[in-house]
Amino acid sequence: MNQSWSSGYVADVPYPEGFYVQQSPARMVLTCLLLGVVADLPSPTDDACYIELGCGVGFGALMTAASNPGWKVVAIDYNPAHIAVGVGLARAARLANIEFLEADVSQLSPSALPTADFVTLHGLWSWVAPEVRAGIVRLLVAKTRPGAIVHISYNSLPAWQGAIGMQRLIHEAGMRVPGRSDERIEAGMELARELNGLSAHHLVESKLVRGVLEKREGVATQYLTHEYMNVHWAPEFHADVADALSEAKLDWVGSANPLENFPGLMMTPEQRKVMDRYSDPIMHELIKDICLQRGLRHDIYVRGARRGGIRQREAAISRLTLIPVVCPDELQTTLDLPAGKAEMSEPLKEMMGAALQGPATVGELLARAPGHGSAAELASVMIGSHQCQPSVWPQSGQPEGADRLNRLLGGRVASVADGRGLALACGRLGTGLGVSTLLKFIAGRLLNGESEKDADAWVAALGGDLRPEELGTVRELMHTALERRVPLLRQLQIVPG
Q: Do 285 and 326 share a structural domain?
């Protein structure tokens, strides 16, 4: 059951360890550059500060700290169990530049925090009490420097309007069952699914609700518990969040998901024509949210946004290095987007193919087909389709702390079903690289001095509880990862070359 100190927030079930690239400083800076806002990314050895509010166990904060050894990273969470895990990981990896604080954001004194260059809050705003949201704004007022970049994610309206009744039903049913919150969510979901099967109007008319109730595999109970069992669960319109954050002099910039910033890719021509009647960006976002099924927003704000011209934007993006994170033969030039399938032009296809032979700067790629694309378009497509990641400091070496953290994380993997913290710290990216459980395991073994020759022993180490046919699948996946994914890790200096 919820603890008496939790104020209605789930505290008896830990939040799943997760890595969300939208929280990375490089992604925050990229969003600013794409939207013409001046932004700089300090080097990994500079004196910079990154704060995460509502960090859970602080997995993303650990990635940032390990990848940027000169930075000060502060990770704050209300749940002492979360903080204990984060402190343990930081201590085991000997990361001296990260501090974990157990604190109630609604009561935390600003004097306890340094002034931040970057602030992130993921999975917090929509799930906490109004006084906690007020505390968030109070801290942002006091502890963001001019030019600081803030990332915030939240459940957005109107996408969630059809699910408000579902959440209330799940929560109320769950609270009438004794036991822990994960047991209560099971009871609530069972009732909602039963009524869904009986064609309850408000559980069948929403595509989002149907997706939640009909998907039974691959959704962790921990996630469902934290999503739906909090008393103060409250999705909001973008305009209302922007208004609240304006008290901290924060200007909305755009989405941390690059492709969402291009209406031509997200909306039909007719929808764009209606949107273009208005010049107000807040109105643009409302119309986009009316047209799209965008349930979770990842928004970027800047304290005192300085907007440059198109030439300045293109020049800044052209200096970015694109680092491939998939193999050249995995190139995707047809993207499945809300507005339909988008087939890239032939010149853009050529540049995209060259990007996967990289690393290369955006400017170098554009020079292959002069006049046939913009820096913003090329960067957004390659990064937004998860084929490349941006690097502002591509010559950065891999910090020793990153190696120690990655070795630790890989060493924790004892089963291919271990879904904790699927990322590895990378100095060249200044953040984590999302990876599979298997690849994280392999990286840990390579960092311990083992080699690919030990692959059969690695399979045996992971296969103690698997059937023979499953063991064969793991062996096949292991060899595929060694052939196709490990070279990418070597290029990023995550594992020894």
A: no
Q: Of 213, 288, 231, nearest to 11 (Cα)?
A: 231
- Structural domain for 332, as ranges: 321-391
- Asked if residue 316 lies in contact with residue 344, where contact means CB atoms within 8 angstroms, the answer is no
Mind listing the pLDDT tens digit for each residue in 123-171? 999 999 999 999 999 999 999 999 999 999 999 999 999 999 999 999 9
Q: Is the pLDDT of residue 328 over 60?
A: yes
Assigned domain for 283 exists: yes
- Please answer whether residues 317 and 33 qualify as being in contact, where contact means their C-beta atoms are separated by less than 8 angstroms: yes
User: Do residues 416 and 371 both lie within one domain?
Assistant: no
Q: What is the mean pLDDT of the chain?
A: 93
Distance of alpha carbon 387 from alpha carbon 42, whole angstroms: 24
Provide CB contacts within 8 A for 41, sequence distance 6+.
25, 26, 29, 392, 393, 430
Q: How many CA atoms lie within 13 A of 390 on its CB side?
A: 34
For residue 136, the number of C-alpha atoms closer than 13 Å in the C-beta half-sphere is 29
Helix spans in 127-258 (H): 130-143, 164-175, 181-197, 201-204, 207-214, 221-228, 238-245
pLDDT-based confidence at residue 1 (cuts at 50, 70, 90): very low
Same domain, 74 and 178: no
Amino acid at 36: G
The Cα 342–Cα 165 span in angstroms is 35
pTM for this structure? 0.94
Number of domains the chain is built from: 4
Picking from 101, 94, 28, the residue whose alpha carbon sits closest to that of residue 66 is 94
Asked if residue 252 and residue 350 are part of one domain, the reply reads no
The answer to whether position 16 is within a domain reads yes
- Cα(271)–Cα(269) distance, rounded to whole angstroms? 5
Give the pLDDT band (50/70/90) at residue 11.
Answer: confident
Task: Tell me the C-alpha distance between 240 and 2, whole Å.
Answer: 29
Q: pLDDT tens digit string along 374-404?
A: 999 999 999 999 999 999 999 999 999 999 9
Token representation of residue 89: 């990981």
- For helices 468-484 and 455-462, give the axis angle rounded to 10 degrees: 130
Same domain, 140 and 177: no
442: enclosing H helix or E strand: helix 437-447
Res 322: pLDDT: 98
Question: Tell me, what CATH number does 14's domain have?
Answer: 3.40.50.150
DSSP string, 71-96: SEEEEEES-HHHHHHHHHHHHHTT-T
Question: To which H or E segment does residue 34 belong?
Answer: helix 25-34
Same structural domain for residues 38 and 151? yes
The residue with tokens 């907007």 is 307
Distance (Å, whole) CA 77 – CA 145: 22
| Average pLDDT, integer, range 59-87 | 97
